[in-house]
Amino acid sequence: MEEKKVYESIEADASLVCGQCQEPLVKGSAKFSYMGNAFPVELPMCPKCKLIYVPEELALGRVLKVEKELEDK
Ligand SMILES: [Zn+2]
Q1: Rg for the chain (alpha carbons), in Å?
Q2: Number of domains present in the structure of the chain
Q3: I want to staple 39 with a disulfide (CB 3.0 to 4.6 A). Which of 7, 22, 51, 59 is the partner?
């Protein structure tokens, strides 16, 4: 049993499809860069062209929270 440390894991919703390929998105590993730091995350992405779907909640609130936790160390 493997468990990776990821800051955010977002399931691919069945309604999410790639605008270019019309392929349903699948959950995959990605890195979210913010303020010079890279955070490992799991996000819905296109299996064909690797387009990564970034939900608005992650782009704004969640990432700011992650950065706050790092500052407190
Ligand atoms: Zn695609």
Answers
A1: 13
A2: 1
A3: 7
The parent domain of residue 67 ranges over 8-71
Q: How many angstroms is it from 47 CA to the middle of ligand 1? A: 7
Global pTM? 0.66
Domain annotation covers residue 2: no
Q: Assess if residue 20 is contained within a domain.
A: yes
Asked if the structure places residue 59 within a domain, the reply is yes
Expressed in angstroms and rounded, the spacing between residue 52 Cα and the centre of ligand 1 is 9
CATH number of 47's domain:
3.10.20
The reported pLDDT for the residue numbered 9 is 86
One-letter identity of residue 49: C
What is the reported pLDDT for 61? Answer: 63
24 with 17: CB under 8 angstroms? yes
**Ligand 1 midpoint to CA 19 (Å):** 7
For residue range 11-54, list pLDDT tens digits in order: 888 889 999 999 999 999 988 777 788 888 888 999 999 988 87
